[in-house]
Amino acid sequence: MVAVVLPRRLARFNRVVTNRITRPFAGALPGFGVVTHRGRGSGRLYRTPVNVFRTRDGYVVPLTYGPDADWVRNVVAAGGCDLRTRGGSVRLTEPRVVRDEARRAMPPGVRDVLNLVDVGHFLFLTRE
Questions:
Q1: In a domain, 70, yes or no
Q2: Which of 38, 45, 83, 122 is the most buried (most CB within 10 A)?
Q3: Structural domain of residue 119, as residue ranges?
């Protein structure tokens, strides 16, 4: 299933420019985090800044580039990842991609923004 929400050009720009700028402080800001994961083929360690929100048993990440983004596929294939958020670090397991057009897991303001850009896929992860 291919669900590209934001343009691939923007994804490429964010990966090359924006992520490098935000990575150092994304793990300390509310609503942001850095997912550490390994490449499926290369085994290389990656650190990807994301928007992230607490759930009852873990965290949820809105998939602004859809469920086929490399980092999402890496996390799902590995069965989890590490997340640095609000200055702490947590191991996350049981990754599951969920399609939710109502965006129920998101805070109201965030839900509105995600609605504007038509984000309907989310990665739910359980705290180890």
A1: yes
A2: 83
A3: 8-15+31-127
- The total number of structural domains that make up the chain: 1
Task: Enumerate residues 6+ apart whose C-beta is below 8 A from 36.
Answer: 45, 46, 47, 81, 82, 83, 84
CATH number of the CATH domain containing 79: 2.30.110.10
Question: What one-character DSSP code corresponds to residue 23?
Answer: H
DSSP string computed for 43-89: --EEEEEEE-EE-SSEEEEE-TT-TT-HHHHHHHHHTEEEEEETTEE
The CA distance from 83 to 37, in Å, is 9
Beta bridge partners, 84, equal 34, 89
